[in-house]
Amino acid sequence: MRRGFTEQGCFEELSIVISEEEKIKCPQCKRELKIECTSTLKVDLHGNKKKEIIGSCEHCLADYFWIEIIDKSGNKKIEEFRRHFCG
Ligand SMILES: [Zn+2]
Fold first, then answer.
1. d(CA 23, ligand 1 centre) in Å
2. In this predicted structure, what is the pLDDT of residue 4?
3. How far is the CA of 33 from the centre of ligand 1 (A)?
4. Most Cβ neighbours (<10 Å): which of 68, 69, 74, 79?
5. Cα(32)–Cα(72) distance, rounded to whole angstroms?
């Protein structure tokens, strides 16, 4: 990615970087889910990092909830993937 500008600080960077392995696919249509919200990172007693994520499929108009766990060795695991209904 490259940015061009004439004055320092004349723009606000709004990009969100999502690495390839963070992309989760819709179980129905296999399209990529759009991340709607992510909880703050929690670390448990064993040093595992845990994040709760809500993502939506803009094609199926469905929301999903899952928990991402990264253990001390950096291995990522998805837990509790399910449909999410708000309200
Ligand atoms: Zn879908």
1. 13
2. 82
3. 8
4. 68
5. 27
Query: How far are the Cα atoms of 24, 28, 32, 65 from residue 56, in angstroms, in the given order?
Result: 10, 12, 9, 9
Asked if residue 32 lies in contact with residue 24, where contact means CB atoms within 8 angstroms, the answer is yes
Residues in the chain: 87
* pLDDT over 60 at 20, yes or no: no
Q: What is the pTM of this model?
A: 0.70
Query: Is 64 in contact with 57 (CB distance < 8 Å)?
Result: yes
Query: What is the 8-class DSSP label of residue 20?
Result: G
pLDDT value, residue 7: 86
CA of 32 to the centre of ligand 1 (A): 8
| Residues 31-74 pLDDT 10s | 999 999 999 999 989 899 999 999 999 999 999 999 999 998 88
How far apart CA 66 and CA 12 sit, in angstroms, is 31
At 9, list the tokens.
Answer: 């600080």
